Amino acid sequence: SLDSLCSTQPDGSLRLSWAPLLPQEMADQLLHKMAAQGTLNDRTVGIFRSCEQLRLRRACVRSSPLSAEAFRLALCPHRLQELDASGVPGGLTGAHILSGLASNPECRASLQRLTLSRLQLGWTSLEVKEEQVGFSSLQGLRTLNLANTDLTDPFLEDICTLPQLEVLDISSTPVTELSALLGCRLTLRSLTAHGLRQLDMSPARVISILSQLHALRHLDLSDDRFVSGDEAVRLLLEGGSGILPALVSLDVSGRKKVTEGAVTAFVEGRRGLLFLGLLATGAGSCDVLSGKNNLKVTGEANEKQICESLRRYRERECFTREALVHLYQLTNDMYNQTRPDILKLVLGGMQNYSESLHVQLVASACVFNLTNQDMAVGMPHPLLSAVVHQVLEAMRSFPSHQQLQKNCLLVLCSDTILQDVPFDRFEAAKLVMNWLSGHVDRTLQRMAVAVISILVAKLSTEQTTQLGADIFIMKQLLGIVQQKAMAGVVDSTLKFALSALWNLTDETPTASRHFIQCQGLELYEEVLKTYSSESSIQQKVLGLLNNIAEVEELQADMMQEDLLEHVVTLLQGPQVEVGISYFAGGILAHLTSRQDAWTLDQGLRQTILEQLVQCILGYRHMCSLTSLSILLRCFKCIVYNVWFYFIPGVQYCQMLQVEGAVELLKTLSSDLDTHSNVRGMAESILGMVERHQTTSNPLRTQTEKGHHGRS
């Protein structure tokens, strides 16, 4: 509702027309929500220029496309304590941010936490010697994250002069020297130096500098290159408690040749250790780790270590992928265990790296293992809904990757997900159809067609119409039917394809027209003959033909003598099931309802009319087997057409009386369980009979299109 609450300014930005003085926390949450939903941009961020009503303290514009000017006008006037501008596209650089923040004297003192990771810092426009644009101008800074930026040695020196700096992340930067860290040796409590690949220092010199950081409690020297070893890491692990004795957290994940002996020595020398990162080191199985209940470990040795890895490494794609690979192996053996806690971690990885094929591939496999068979039943539906959304995103992002598409299809092929979980079924149906067009694997084809069949049945009429407008979908499904019919097989793939086509043509003239254009009538006539003893197949075929017959402009295409004569044989008989008779009657009722549109021999039409009346009257013999109201409710289409079309003269009113149908209609009319539409039809027929009894004039029939719905 943002547009309705705002006015547009000359520069195109929005301003709130009116707003109360919101609590500061609410303003922060509003900004964060807009950024998370992808609605924050130069236009919408303008509402935060109203500093009196929307007071920001903890601002998050993560990954939002903002220009330097929009950022300066909307955010810099606030007395910010925290700012997360990581990954911001649109030309906003670190230099712009520093310049804007430093222009506000209050912000220079108040800002404590600044995150600029994955941002181009743009140092060419930044001069350290100009106090107002240097990091050192933000004297209140305690936490600074510059991971994956173009940070260089001179600016690291500037940063390390900050008097209160406690937390610093310089991961994956081109820094070559760490000597500058000595400038904050008395305050720095946490140093993250992951993947410093351009570091040009001897291992001994690195350890010498680190050992002088007397306040350091948390150290990250991990590397996602999975390097074969590092002398500095070895010196640290084996150096005894004299090196960084107060350390409570160390991460050396990815260092391939970390030995169990070195890990044992390090852990035993630090009783206060709370975290140890050992993912992809091969050292996670150390015996010393099993007895430390308060020690959290990332690794691959067990479920606890793998889950901790997924929690800790949300910002590191390579580690996320590594943890998911081991989780997949673990979940292969998780039979009948509902684990929403683990599924939530997998979902987080998929969301954080939606553009990474490697992450999506292994994560989708994990999702299948965690939701397979009955394991999805106990999962929270909001969680499953978010998972399905991400699965569809993966299908859309990587349409040509066969294994990923297969994984996603396997996830969707779940009764719980398809029937109970809310998600965009229309989009899912399109994606699965697109996948189906390029694959012939029988097992996967069966699943894909099953998914489509269920999805189409749950779409709204508008969505079904939109889906049916694509003739490509009709061709694909008819192709599957033809493939199965030529082989003469009866399997679930054929049945699902027939159901999908039936649903796709329900109340959708466009899809029905495409069915005709794709030679569907000829194919379905053959299917009726080929599967004459398969009632489940015949009912689905007749159900679709009934949908076609409802469309007046397509009735001429169905005027095929052989087809109609075959349908007449399915009206009644000892081997004809009720459902088959119902749809056969519906087809014939629609095609004979408009005498002026009938193009075949009139004798055939008269024969069909007589057969229909006999069929309807024959239903009364079933009353001993099932409730009359329920039985006739199923045949509302035929009753409806009797009402309008099959009583063209006095003789039919007399027939209704002679055959006892009047009493059946009276029972139907008085039964409270009878559907209102059917009751109305029965009462109308009774009214015709009554008028016949009181006048010698023949009944005047009406002309109106009936609608029977779908079984």
From TrEMBL:
Pfam families in alphabetical order: ZER1-like_2nd
Q: Does the keyword Nucleotide-binding apply?
A: no
Check the record and name the InterPro entries matching this protein: ARM-like, ARM-type_fold, LRR_dom_sf, ZER1-like_C, Zyg-11_UBL_adapter
SUPFAM superfamilies in the cross-refs = ARM repeat, RNI-like
All copies of domain Protein zer-1 homolog-like C-terminal, residue ranges: 350-690
Going by the entry's taxonomy, the superkingdom of the source organism is recorded as Eukaryota
Q: Which UniProt keywords apply?
A: Ubl conjugation pathway
* Family the UniProt entry places it in: Belongs to the zyg-11 family.
The name of this protein is Protein zer-1 homolog-like C-terminal domain-containing protein
**Organism for this UniProt entry:** Oncorhynchus mykiss
